[in-house]
Fold each of these.
Amino acid sequence: MFPFNFEWVWDIAHVIFFGALWYSLAILGAGMAFVIVKSAMDTMNDSGEPHH
Amino acid sequence: MDSALIPEGADRCSFPKFAIGICIVGAVALWGVYAMFLCWFKGLNQTNMNDYYGFALWIWADLAVIAVGGGAFFTGLLKYIFNVDELKNIINFAVIIGFICYSSALLILAIDIGQPLRGWFIFWHANVHSMLTEVAFCLSCYFAVLTIEFIPNLLENRQANKVPFFRHLAHNMHGVMAIFAATGAFLSFFHQGSLGGVAGVMYGRPFAVREGLLIWPWTFFLFTWSAAAFGPCFTLLVTWITEVVTGKKLVKDNVVHLLAKISGWMITTYIIAKIIDTIYWAYVTAPSLGFKMSHFYTNNSFYGYWILITEIVVCGVIPGILLLNKSTRENSTTRWIAIVLGVIGVCLNRWVMVLQIMAVPVMSFDTWALYVPSWQEVATTVLPVAYGIIFIAITYRYLPVFPQERELNHTKLEQ
């Protein structure tokens, strides 16, 4: 799962499989981190009632 | 009793009536949970799996719920990426259905691996040459996407929405939902496809094996396509069932007609591709491996040509035509016939691709092996259905799932 695991091999299969996995997880993580931080800032600034 | 949690202006049944309903369905769910624990504590000898049937009934259920749950990714793709704005009125429910389907799929896999405590091995000690590893990665990540897509709806609960942080969080999540929807579509494309790909690369099973493009057999593309085609049918079917049970109109006709029309086009194009694939397999692939088509549909008491005709013509061509044609699409009876046939069709396709391929004799000394699931398999397959009913009942009661509900039932509420 990680390059420091004993079974890790730097081949194309590992790079594609785990590259796609970590890329997807990074997008989800970054997206959630962004909205959580922004919501915390909005709450502190109390920018009024959001509408959607 | 729980009126403070019910969405403002929404009419719901009394709490005792709701609780009785949950208890009845909960009893069925408990039966499934009991069977699940039997499989975990006593092992997979509780099933009727054997050397012929490495895939049990619940693997069919797994593939079927993933296929019908495809409505979530496809509706999300249309709403957030292609900006089909009308679908905002059904997207919450599509996400809830997807959430139920994918959590069920993961639960089924947790039962199927026999030792759920070792479930993390698939990530930690991944076999990067297996399509099923890709399926496990994409399923888990896509379930995370569905959870993220469901959170704003959860935070819009009447009481949760009073908390300023939750209110801002729901608002901000809506703002970046396109990124999550795009990630979900990417993940869905690959796991739906790889589930089909698993069948297509079974070189020892002439009933399943297919040619393809690069490393992907045609079944890879057919599975993704069919999930996008029939998934919206399931969303519409569950919406209709919810409307019947609640006795309310929850989504406007123009939204239903639009989703049915999109589904109709997808079904028609899919079924054309499926027919071409079947003809090529019957006349080129199977003969090249030494088999006639009749070998796969005769000399047994269950799998006849009827299953092929039912899947492709009755549950594929007919729903496609009914949903493409404006008059039959807008007629509620013919539309519901098409939707029900479509959902049956995709489930039948997964049955054929999971169980029939295991039944067909491969060696000259083999015979057909017809499979009867054990009660534990049936109970664990019914479990996701009971769980889904309970989940929908709770979310419908406490969350503003249908934005048009209030408007559509305004007169009724005033009386």
Amino acid sequence: MLVMSDINKVYQTELVQTHALRDFNLTVKEGEFIAVTGPSGSGKTTFLNIAGLLENISSGDYQLDGQSIVGLSDKELSRLRNEKIGFIFQGFNLIPDLNLFENVDVPLRYRGFNSKERKQKIEHALELVGLASRMKHLPSQLSGGQQQRVAIARALAGEPKFLLADEPTGNLDSLMAKQVMELLEKINKQGTTIVMVTHDAELARRAERNIQIVDGQLCDFTMYQGGATANEQEAIA
Amino acid sequence: MLHISPIFNAMMRNKSSVVLIIMQIALTLAIVSNAAFIIKERIDDMQRDSGIPETEIVGFSMYFYDEDVDITKQLQVDQQKIMELPYVVEATGINQLPLSGSGDSWGFRNQLEMEGALTSGAGVFAGNSNITQVFDQQITKGRSFRPDELVLRNSGADAPKVAIITQALADELFPDGDALGKYIYSIDLPFQVVGIMDKMQGPWVHSSLVEKTVLLPVLYNQQFIRFAIRVEPGEADTMIKNVQDILLKLENRRVINTASTIAEMKATSYQRDKLMTNMLMVIIAVLIFITALGIAGMTIFNVNRRQKQIGTRRALGASRADIQGYFMTESAMIAGLGIVLGIILALVLNNYLMTYFSSEALSFNYIAATLVGIILVIEVAVFLPALKASKISPAIATRSV
């Protein structure tokens, strides 16, 4: 599903050169649920941005669902993001001026579905997260947990193969966090690959596989239910 | 048309700034279209053909302060002397000068009886029998005055019996087109129309009577009188420079005011129109600039305020072109709403101007041209902020602040 080979990401300013990722190698198989942990400033967000095609790599190769993203145009990357990846953000990132229906509709419009298809997918996604009855509400009328469920519905509506979750429970209380986590597990069981960046060790333990990023490198991993390949172990070693 | 309904819905949920910009665009459209129309009206007026060679006719007024001067005789002496000059074509004493902003008008009708008569006012030029030649008038029907038709008003003679009128007056009083040979009446004085000229504007450029002119072969015995001289092309300055000396040598019991060409008098008469035209042009430019600034400012504000939203949209699959298109579409929709309101306001404003300032009905072409201009200005104003928005990195979506 996701193969990162010798990826480097360097941020260059006039005075400083920062290596956010160094010789980074990772393979994520289709259907896996991976938790990515690491201290602040370790490169988790950079990894997430690169995995989600939100930033370009400085060197190396990244193949998403069998397609190398190196050298793709903005339009091609946008298309890939839209078709293959669903995003769940820590701050939900719902658009405050749009109601739930319209929020979930955003990626579907960029995909070019007709209105009938979009309506069907939006209703299905909102039903999945238990908010179909509130689709005309604005985000400000919902609790944090409900907003995150809308964000999950938005991420799922386009039926992506790969879900990237950035601290999905970071802004939620423990009960809400549990509900969201259970929802993600349910989605994963239906076949969607999930990569979740989190600070929460307990949450991370619920994933199939944990990887840890320190100083821009994949330095450790824990396999709970199997998943890492021999190649990865070699790369990490 | 990918985004119209969500953009519209989002705008409706965040009305205040949008409503202000819509109002601004509407007012701009209403004012600019009417102002452009007024400018065009004024420019058309200023560029109207007066029917006379304005730069070749020199005119001036003079005042005979000694009542013993035989003015009609003196005017003929003056004319004779002036016409001896090699660069003078024709000259005559006259009661008023075209386009000068000062003069007489009389009321005329097409029959002696008041009842059922067609009536019209007209500027009346009274001069020597060569008056048509002085103003280089081509008589399209009939003839010019004969010398024996001249009436000197201090000789006890009656009023002149003949008149030459412009086509505009002929059409007004004789709609059947048979004015030549007919009589026109002012109070109870009859004048036979012996000639019709195509065009000769009267003294008041803003009057509805400006195209309605009557020439009469009569020299008045008035202490305050005027003089008109047609010179060869390019000789007006020479005439203006010399005329006072020449005439004062003939008779010095008079004050002769500075002469000028009809073109200069016309420029003075249209001075306020020119000033108004220039002011309206400035107002148009300022209004359009402010509107462009307003919508560009709103877009810049929205782009800055929605950075995270833009990043999120990019993360969810929007390309740079989609983001730019979003803001261009949003501004076009705001412009569209402003334009709809503006068209209504423009028509209301025009109705007010028609009612209270005798303006003409606003042609829809001016509204159409203005709205096309406003859309273009707005889209140009929004282009750069929208471009800036499209360059926002999608990675901003994952930043926590």
